[in-house]
Design brief:
Its EC number is 2.4.2.53. This protein is α/β, with parallel strands linked by helices. The protein folds into two domains: about 5-210, Spore Coat Polysaccharide Biosynthesis Protein SpsA, Chain A, CATH 3.90.550; about 225-295. About 50% of the residues lie in helices and about 15% in strands. The chain is built from ten helices and eight strands. An eight-stranded mixed beta sheet has the order 7-5-6-4-1-2-3-8, sandwiched between helices. The chain starts with 5 loop residues before the first strand and ends in a 6-residue tail after the last strand. About 35% of the residues are buried. It binds uridine-5'-diphosphate (UDP) and magnesium ion. Magnesium ion binds next to loops.
Length: about 325
């Protein structure tokens, strides 16, 4: 395989319906760019026909396509991580397989990279996703920026470009849970964000359930900041001060007015509130401890079954 200039990285998990159109749209865009390129697909343990379709496509274009086949489902970010350790290009562009990021936007990213930006982020114009996801994302993007201290307008948009230097740093960071766009932004020297088209998912369904999305957001927050832990400490301090004042007031009241008998339900309400805060705080601490546990287990973050590419092909 010739050394490519641009590497396209695409994680694939059960996308048999989208793949034919992806091949159809992506290939001409890349050919038209007129630069040496490679497309690296990662099959993230698909249970449908995705693997055999990717396999056929790789056989059809052995010089341009590489296929990394995972041993199971390790998640979108781990799939991208695996590809990052294998890409050869000078510029690396990630893309979803479901065509929500139109391949025709790739040249825009390449142009920005040519201008010298080491990370090209993107922000979805008229994002076509269910309303509740868009609303939740808006809030999450704001909170995440303030927690992590990064500046990304659209964390969820995976159509992004990275310079070789950034990819090497990301591939060498050995985190067991992570969030690629945030890692890229963290190490970027000269990042830029562009607006890209976004399409509705036409085939298949989103691979993220509500629960999985929440977990992914916890990954993002815990990987990039300790401030949730500091909130726990601060809220504990705040509550201690308030309850001290309350005790002092009750004591004075007892001497001046006499003991108070009413207010049972007020007491219960306060108690429920405090129990809620305690459980939540335990949970936040637990999120970090769980990740420390995963990290020290040092299990492989992903397992590659086989790589299909020109050089090692039979
Ligand atoms: N994906 C993956 N592994 C997973 C989940 C998703 O490789 O466990 C891939 C999926 O095939 C797609 C991309 O990640 O190419 C984004 O997934 P999806 O479109 O479901 O996410 P959404 O657009 O709903 O955020
Ligand atoms: Mg999608």
């Amino acid at each position: 395989m010739m050394v490519p200039e641009i590497s396209i990285v695409i994680p694939v998990y059960n996308e048999e319906e989208s793949l034919p159109r992806l091949f159809e749209e992506l290939y001409p865009v890349m050919e038209k760019l007129g630069r040496k390129y490679e497309i690296v697909f990662v099959n993230d343990g698909s249970k449908d026909k995705s693997f055999s379709m990717l396999y056929d496509f790789q056989k059809m274009h052995p010089h341009a396509v590489r296929l990394i086949d995972f041993n199971g489902n390790f998640g979108q970010h781990m799939a991208i991580m695996a590809a990052f350790s294998h890409v050869c290009g000078k510029f690396i562009i990630t893309l979803d397989a479901d065509l929500q990021n139109p391949p025709s936007e790739i040249p825009k990213l390449v142009k920005k990279m040519d201008e010298g930006h080491d990370v090209v982020g993107s922000c979805r114009k008229n994002r076509r996703d269910p309303f509740f996801r868009k609303a939740a994302s808006r809030v999450v993007n704001k909170i995440t920026n303030s927690i992590t201290g990064l500046q990304i307008n659209d964390y969820g948009c995976m159509l992004r470009g990275y310079d070789r230097r950034i990819i090497d740093i990301i591939a060498n960071s050995n985190e067991s849970t992570t969030f690629i766009p945030a890692l890229g932004q963290k190490y970027a020297v000269n990042p830029v964000e562009i607006v890209v088209e976004h399409r509705e998912r036409e085939y298949g369904m989103s691979k993220y359930s509500m629960f999985r999305l929440i977990r992914l957001n916890f990954d993002l927050m815990t990987s990039f900041s300790l401030s949730p832990l500091q909130w726990v400490t601060m809220s504990g301090m705040g509550i201690s001060v308030l309850s001290f004042l309350l005790v002092a007031y009750m004591l004075i009241r007892r001497f001046v007015i006499g003991s108070e008998a009413e207010g049972l339900f007020t007491l219960m309400a306060i108690q429920f509130f405090l129990t809620g805060i305690s459980i939540m705080s335990l949970g936040i601490i637990g999120e970090y401890i769980g990740r420390i546990y995963k990290q020290i287990q040092k299990r492989p973050r992903f397992v590659i079954k086989k790589i299909w590419e020109e050089d090692i092909d039979e």
